[in-house]
Hints:
49% of the residues lie in helices and 0% in strands. The protein contains two helices and no strands. The chain is rod-shaped. The N and C termini lie far apart (64 Å).
Amino acid sequence: MTGLAATAVRVLKAIYGTLVASGRMYVWTPLTDLHPEGSGIPSHHPERLRPDLPLTDYERALEHELTTEGRVP
């Protein structure tokens, strides 16, 4: 390729990349397959609560504070 053709190809690739990035920002695709509705916290999540262990005094105090001040529905 000549210098002018190589420059044109490079410019067109940059324009194409810019348009693709812009489209990804403005066209939202829901990712419901990654986190299905109502599935809760994944089993491998580090903050998953164990239902077989009761809350500590500190955790109970935090829960009370959050629910009484209306921060958590």
